């Protein structure tokens, strides 16, 4: 279930997933262009995750991994994770994968951990070393979660530089500067 007030969580659950119906369903109109309101057993459809999840809990459907987690994506991530454009595949790649993995393919969790581990280093490296103009191409490939990480790293680096260039310094407390009398 989505966090009611989190817009990102709501958008994650709007991602479409392919599924196969185990039971025939009557009285459901999935698409306005289809005149009938009947879905036969064995029908394959793509529905939003929130609906597919509810149907899966009722054992009415089986969910398959969507295209953003297909074999081609996995091979590209294994070859060079930093160069893969995950944003074009799914804006919320990690969050969506975490919600999807327990329902259809447990190996998605390993893919997410592997991809994030490699891309994390690249994101922080670029955030701390690259100028904004050079980073714009890099930013266009990042997922929403990675973009948030990049912006947080940029902000912390700016704060650090501001502090180093003349921000408030640490000083010894006045009480520590007094000499103590030694009793003889």
TrEMBL record:
Residue span(s) of domain GINS subunit: 69-164
Domain DNA replication complex GINS protein PSF3 N-terminal as annotated: residue spans: 5-55
GO term, biological process aspect, one: mitotic DNA replication initiation
Gene Ontology CC annotations of this record: GINS complex
Alphabetically ordered keywords of this record: DNA replication, Nucleus
Alphabetized Pfam families for the sequence: PSF3_N (PF22466), Sld5 (PF05916)
InterPro entries xref list: GINS_A (IPR021151), GINS_bundle-like_dom_sf (IPR036224), GINS_Psf3 (IPR010492), GINS_Psf3_sf (IPR038437), PSF3_N (IPR055221)
Domain of life: Eukaryota
Subcellular localization: Nucleus
UniProt record similarity statement: Belongs to the GINS3/PSF3 family.
Official protein name in the record: GINS subunit domain-containing protein
Organism, scientific name: Erythroxylum novogranatense
